[in-house]
Every structure is written in C-alpha cells, then in structure tokens.
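Duplicate of #3305? Posting structure anyway:
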C-alpha cells in the first residue's frame, strides 16, 4: 500500500543555499514562486480557490496560510517560455531544479508513477490541522518543494504543482502554496508529549486495510479482486483513513488537558470537573463525526465489491478499532469519577454517548460473528 499512498511527513535536513546570501538557511525559491504566481495570474480559476491565513491573535505572527488554485490552459500557452519553446524544455522542472539548493526537500513524480502525495497543515500551539491531497491520479505530473519560512524558521513553506493533459489540447492542474509549522517540530512538541492520553493513539486508520493486504497474498479470489482495482480506487479508501486520523487528532488537546488534571490529583478536582464539562460537548461531536466517517468508509469499501470474506475481515477490524477507541474514552471518564467522586452533568452525557456507541458497535460485531458462524 505504501506504493500507492505516501503521507508527507517532512524531516529536517541539511540545507545548501546560495553563497551570496547572508542568511543561507532562509532563502526563498524565487524562480518557483514567480512561476506559480504567474500560472495563477494567467490561468488560475481564482473564483474557486482555497485561501486562508491564520495568525496568533496576541502577536499577529503568522501560524499558517493556504492557497490552493486550480488552473486550465492551452498546452502551448502554459508551457511556452520567453523563447517560445514548449513542454520539452521542462520549464516547470527547470524552475524547481534552479531553486533546489534553498530547499530541504524536493519531489517529482512523472505520469505513470503510482505514488500519491499529500501535505499536512499543522499549526503552532497544537491548533487544528488538515491534510490536503496534492497528487491524486497516476496521470498527473507533480513537482513539490519545501523550504524554511524566511520570517519564522519554525514554519515550513511548501510549493507544489500538479497537472495532466485534458481534452482539446488543454492542461488542467492545481497550484499549492502552503505555510505551516514544520512537521518535525510539531512531532517533537505535540505528538511526542508523554502526557498525551492514549485515546488519540489507539486507532490505526490503516488497520482495516491490513487484512485486505494479507488476504490478497494468500487468497486467489482476493488477489484477483485487488488486481481489478485502479490505483485511484485504492487511494480513495486510504484518503478517507487519513482524514479520519486528522479528525481523531483534533481530540488530542482535550485528552491531554484532562489527563494532566487527573495526574495532578485531588487538589485539582474542582478544575477537573470544570474542564470535563467544558470539553464534553466537543467529545460528543468528535465521536459523532468519527462514527459517521467509519460508516462512510465501510460503505465506500463495499462499493468496490470485494469478496465476501475480505468485506467480513475489514468489517471485523473496523468494529474492533472503534470499540478500542471508545473503551479508552470510557476509562478516562472513570478516572475522572475516581478522582472527583462523581461526574459533572455534561460529562455524564458524554459518557452516556460513548456507552451508546459502544453498544452499537458491539451489536454490529456480534451480528457479524453470528453470520459468519
């Protein structure tokens, strides 16, 4: 499956940049920026773009920015340079190669390559984050470059472009210009926090795919079915898993806060009750979203018409994953009860919702077991 889907987790590496610049590690990829802005200006469908900027409300310091613009152009117009040469000159690739010395990562996929690619957008202070797919088809060509932000080296600037040939000698594609916290810093400061509740780590969104891969190696029927799927079909399922993981991680700050207050002991039980009530509605909404997403995932997987045993295996793993996730949440509520001697009203409602979901998935799992027997 790794050949089909790659998550963009960028690690810091040594940077070799222009010798003429005073701050060599913070140089901008000027050729790439000019190229992408030019394509947006000449061919961008800006009425349908994604554009957002997030700043710290106290310092006005940039935390993340996103600009994603689709474009459509005639082949010759898009790939002409000042010398009127066309695509064979690889004008886009030339710009990325020229700026490669200022980057710490550069990636290129040609049409026919089966790997897909996405960018994580994570914010300073552990705020909300998203995932944007860049390369979504084997027919696309992609160039991508990442550099340190010149104003704040904790941030990562990602520049990317994908395109493919369309009808009537057209080229359609998308430009990505994204700034967010460097993934290595995010991992060190947030995902690596030892006080993080295990609730956010119990689900492996790829686990439902594991039995599929195992059976495709052992079962002839599963193997033939796997061969019949396109990379795009397999990728659509993996993309849903990635989105689900992002939704689960939105709960991380909640569980981190509650776990810390539990460890602080009885002296903080009043504050623990306040925070348990404060976060209870958010926990309910997050669980509703994850439940809906699981159902959508199973429906989309079923639409691929897998063999019965493959579908049964995926259902089983999915139900067990959700039950594990809910069990860990219930443990957290029980710990709050142990420290305080009671649960506040909103937290009681949240635990009731967790128990209802648990009962739902237990019934589904038991039903599946009975049908298979």
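Output from current build:
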């Amino acid at each position: 499956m790794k050949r089909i889907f790659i998550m963009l987790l960028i690690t810091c590496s040594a940077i070799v940049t222009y010798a003429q610049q005073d701050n060599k590690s913070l140089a901008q990829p000027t050729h790439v920026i000019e190229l992408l802005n030019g394509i947006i200006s000449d061919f961008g469908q800006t009425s349908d773009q994604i554009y957002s900027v997030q700043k710290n409300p106290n310092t006005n310091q940039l935390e993340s920015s996103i600009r994603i613009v689709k474009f459509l152009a005639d082949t010759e117009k898009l790939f002409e340079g000042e010398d009127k040469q066309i695509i064979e000159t690889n004008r886009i690739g030339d710009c990325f190669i020229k700026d490669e010395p200022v980057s710490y990562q550069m990636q290129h996929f040609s049409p026919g390559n089966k790997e897909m690619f996405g960018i994580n957008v994570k914010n300073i202070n552990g705020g909300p984050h998203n995932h944007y797919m860049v390369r979504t088809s084997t027919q696309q060509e992609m160039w991508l470059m990442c550099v340190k932000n010149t104003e704040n080296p904790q941030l990562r600037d990602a520049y990317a472009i994908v395109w493919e040939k369309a009808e009537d000698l057209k080229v359609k594609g998308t430009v990505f210009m994204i700034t967010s916290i460097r993934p290595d810093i995010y991992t060190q400061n947030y995902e690596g926090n030892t006080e993080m509740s295990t609730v956010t780590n119990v689900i492996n969104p790829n686990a439902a795919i594991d039995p599929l891969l195992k059976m495709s190696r052992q079962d002839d029927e599963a193997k033939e079915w796997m061969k019949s799927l396109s990379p795009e079909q397999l990728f659509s399922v993996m993309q849903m898993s990635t989105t689900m993981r992002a939704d689960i991680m939105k709960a991380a700050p909640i569980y981190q806060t509650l776990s810390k207050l539990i460890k602080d002991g009885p002296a903080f039980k009043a504050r623990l009750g306040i925070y348990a009530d404060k976060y209870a509605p958010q926990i309910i909404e997050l669980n509703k979203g994850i439940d809906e997403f699981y159902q959508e995932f199973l429906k989309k997987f079923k639409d691929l018409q897998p063999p019965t045993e493959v579908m049964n295996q995926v259902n089983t793993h999915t139900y067990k994953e959700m039950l594990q996730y809910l069990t860990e949440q219930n443990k957290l509520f029980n710990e709050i009860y142990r420290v305080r001697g009671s649960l506040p009203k909103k937290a009681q409602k949240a635990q009731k919702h967790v128990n209802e979901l648990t009962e739902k998935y237990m019934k589904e799992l038991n039903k599946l077991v009975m049908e298979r027997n």
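Confirmed duplicate; merging threads. The longest strand covers residues 62-74. The two ends are 31 Å apart (CA to CA).
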